[in-house]
Amino acid sequence: MLERNIFPWLGGKPITDILPKDILECLRRVEDRGTIETAHRTLQICGQVYRYAVATGRIDRDVTPDLRGALPPAKGEHFAAITEPKQVAELLRAIDGYQGSLVAVCALKFAPLVFVRPGELRAAEWQHIDFGTKEWRYFVSKTEVQHIVPLSSQTIKILEELHPLTGHGRYVFPSERAPRGDRCMSENTLNAALKRLGYGKDVMTAHGFRAMARTILDEVLGHRVDFIEHQLAHAVKDPNGRAYNRTAHLPERQKMMQSWADYLDSLKAGAQVIPFKKTGT
Q1: 2-67: what fold?
Q2: How many Å apart are CA 27 and CA 43, to the nearest integer?
Q3: How large is the average pLDDT for residues 44-51?
Q4: What counts of helices (H) and strands (E) characterise the chain?
Q5: Which residues contact residue 169 at a Cβ distance below 8 angstroms, ignoring those fewer than 6 apart?
Q6: To which CATH superfamily is domain 85-268 assigned?
Q7: What does the pLDDT look like over 105-133, one tens digit per residue?
Q8: Are the C-beta atoms of residues 201 and 80 closer than 8 Å to each other?
Q9: 199, 87 in Cβ contact below 8 A?
Q10: pTM of the predicted model, to two decimals?
Q11: CA-closest candidate to residue 189, choices 122, 113, 124, 97
Q12: How far is the first Cα of the chain from the last one, in angstroms, to the nearest whole number?
């Protein structure tokens, strides 16, 4: 994050010569890209650098608190999320080893691949899954839009494994207490599974898979922010001010979702991933 957002402009200056306004100019560039959360995280990392410099006698004080309030607040409720690739790899390997019901195991593996809101995942219905087009289409009540989730080959494999068990009912991930499949999975199931794996709510949540994907797709894989925002089903507008279009950039999003699934597989396999490598999408 520093290499992308700070070093090109400030990396060659002694830390004693860097003023708060210099840091703010860098953060404004990030904000202009529409990634205010990234701007806040970058400022936090700068603060860590300054505190280390204070502790080692290089400077007298941390100047980053002077920027408190200079950035717009990050939107939405905070959900704990793991966003560092090395830690993501450990989490994914833990998920692969999770011992639970097939429905819970499949839901836990499905969540990072599609990074939808947990309530949307729990309420997934078989009638909305199209194996032919490899798409999941449903209505997002939060933003009142129709949404399309392109399904990677990895997600298709999970659904094909689960279909013989739950395909006779309404929900893809039904409640274990509803044998006919007429009630969806409990809202606590995924977070409880993560907790059993050693990831409490202060470390990782089911909602955190969204932040994980949002951060890595942008800052590591270099996908376009508008593609990512559309895939997150955020209420974005195009340059002409038109509201979200569910089919916008669909071919590009299909490629992005498959590359995301492949990237997660490479992390689990222990591949060395070079950060900030652009994909050209």
Answers
A1: DNA polymerase; domain 1 (1.10.150)
A2: 7
A3: 92
A4: 12, 3
A5: 126, 180, 181, 182
A6: Intergrase catalytic core (1.10.443.10)
A7: 999 999 999 999 999 999 999 999 999 99
A8: yes
A9: no
A10: 0.68
A11: 122
A12: 20
